[in-house]
Write a structure and sequence with these properties.
Length: 398
Amino acid sequence: MSIQQRYEGAVMNTFGPPALALVRGRGAHVWDADGKDYVDLLGGIAVNALGHAHPALVEAVTAQMQTLGHVSNFFATEPQVALAEKLVSLLGWGDEARVFFSNSGAEANEAALKLTRRTGRTRVVAAEGSFHGRTMGALSLTSKAAYREPFEPLPGDVTFVPYDDVAALEAAVDETVAAVVLEPVQGEAGVVVPSADYLAEAQRIAHAHGALLWLDEVQTGIARTGAWFAHQLLDGVQPDVITLAKGLGGGIPIGATVARGGAAALLQPGNHGSTFAGNPVATAAALAVLATIEADGLLDATVERGQQLEALLRKQTGVVEVTGSGLMRGAELDGPYATQAVVAGRDAGFILNATGPSRLRFVPPLVITSADLDALDAALPSILDAARAAIASQETTA
Ligand SMILES: *Cc1c(COP(=O)(O)O)cnc(C)c1O
C-alpha cells in the first residue's frame, strides 16, 4: 500500500487527501516516494526558513538533544533564555520586554489573547480576511466563516472590521477595546498588503483609546519579508505585542508571544503555561535559525531572491497582480485556475500553493537559489497554460 492509502486508513481526515507523500529534502528541494524532485515554493507554509535538512539546524537539534532535551518549565535552560534575549534584541525592545514561548502560531495567539484579558477589557478588534489559527481562541479572531461556523459559539468578544480601512477602525475602537490584532500582511488571504500608513494609523487609534496594538507576525516574521519583522519595514510602528511561530524554528514546532512595556507584565504567575513550551531543543533550533540568517546574509538574500521572484511573476502571461515583499509574494491570475496551476506545477516538479481560486502564494525557503527561481521562470508559462487548458476542459464537460 502507498503511504497515501495508509494515510487514509489511519489519519483523521481534516486536511483532505494529501497531494504527495514526501520522503526527503535538501535546500529548497523535496523528493517524493518515487524519487521525483520538486522545487519547494511553499516551504512547509513559510516554515522552512533554512530549507530542508540544513546542517546548522540538524547540528543544533542533535547536540541539544544529546545534552538536555526536555525539562519542563519548572526549570530554566540556557537556550530558552538566550532565545528570549535574542528576540527582544532583534525587535529593538528594551529591558521591559518579555517573551512567552509556546508550540505553534495558534498557541502564540492564545497566549496573547489571554494577555489582553488581563487589561480588564474584553473586546478585541480584528480584521476581515484575517487568519490567526484554529484553536478556539485563535479561531475567534479568524474571520473566515467556513472555519468559524462549525464551532460557534466561539469565545471572545470580537469585532471584525474591513482590513486596510482606517475609518472602520476609528469607528470600532473605543474604551472597551483591549487590543487591535492585525497581520502586517495577510498571509492566508493571499498576501494582502495594506496601505503604507495603515499600521501606523491602527497604532495611533489603539493607543488613543488605551488599547494594545498586537501584530500577528506568525507568517511575516523571521526575515520572511526581507526584514526581521514586517513591521520594521514601516516608519514609527511599534506594536505592544507580537506573535511568532512558522519560520522561527525552521521546522521544529515553536511559537512566541513577545510583549513590551505594561503589556509585558500582564500575565502573572499561574495565568498561563504549557508543558513543552520553550523546551531546550525547540529554542536551540530557533537560535540556530536566527544565527544562520545572520551568518549567511539571508536577510539580503531574501530581498534579492524576492526581487527576482517578483520580476519573474510580473512578466508571466496571465498574472495580473503581484503583491508582497521579500520571499512572501502573492500572484493574482486572470481566471480561477490557481488549483489547476498547483496540479500542473506538481507534474512539472514544483510545489506551488493556491490561497484562493485565482490566487497563488509563494513562501519558499529563504535559502532558495537563483537557479531554482530560474527553473520556475522557465517552467511557469507551460504550467499556467496547462492550468488554463485543465479548467477549460472542466468547463466543457460541466
Ligand atoms: C499560520 C498562521 C497562524 C497559525 O499558526 P499554527 O502554527 O498553524 O497554529 C496564525 N497566524 C498567522 C498569521 C498564520 O499565518
